Amino acid sequence: MTTKAQLKARILRLIGDPDGATTTDELLGDAIEAAHTAILPWVFKQSTSTFTCDGATSVFELPADMYKIVAVFDSDSGYYIPASSMAALQAPGQNIQTNQDWLEYPEGSLALANAPAVDASLVVYYAAAWIVPESDNDDLETPGWCATALALYGASYALLQKSTQAADIRQWNVRVDSGTPVMNPVKDMSTYFMDRFFMEVKTLPSRTRGARG
User: Fold this and answer.
1) Going by fewer Cβ within 10 Å, which terminus of the chain is more open, N or C?
2) 128-153, pLDDT tens digit by residue?
3) DSSP per residue, the chain
4) Domain tally, the chain
5) What is the per-residue pLDDT for 212?
């Protein structure tokens, strides 16, 4: 397992500041939190939430850590409920097998076309946000094979502050007409690490997502 302290050290080595002399701990914390959010489209925490139905309720409050609904299963019908197509001239709950469909609407809620039967169990499979550890000694909740992606995104984020400072300083530079001088090399390095991040996440194992139909 990788600890938060180890990830911090890895980011600092990438940006050429192994001792953390010019990078604050607060900025590193922000970078790690942002990296945990950035990987969610590719690698999310697989979670479930179960609701016991009363026969009347058709709108259920989703967990606070929910990022995206993957699938909804109704124990009474024995079917995975399809997502609503929200197509023109299409009434809710017109699925032939289940007479049911769902919407994530309003925000943070699961709305069904019809209330499930009394005592039916509604299981929501969902993509959840990763918990970012607070202590340096705590292990990361993300899989170990995400460490490189987290470090690359963290490095890009950590360089944003220095890129902004470099931009402020270089506004007084005299423009050189000959050649193609790099006006803000720190910005270019931040972009380079971001490009490497996208290359890395493409190699990560994809997670199962439910069909929308």
Assistant:
1) C
2) 999 999 999 999 999 999 999 999 99
3) --BHHHHHHHHHHHTT-TT-SSS-HHHHHHHHHHHHHHTTTTS-EEEEEEEE--SS--EEEPPTTEEEEEEEEETTTTEEEPBP---TT--TT--TTTS--EE--STTEEEESSPPPTT-EEEEEEEEPPPPPSSTTSBPSS-GGGHHHHHHHHHHHHHHHHHHHHHHHGGGPPPP-SS---S-HHHHHHHHHHHHHHHHHTTSPPPP-----
4) 2
5) 55
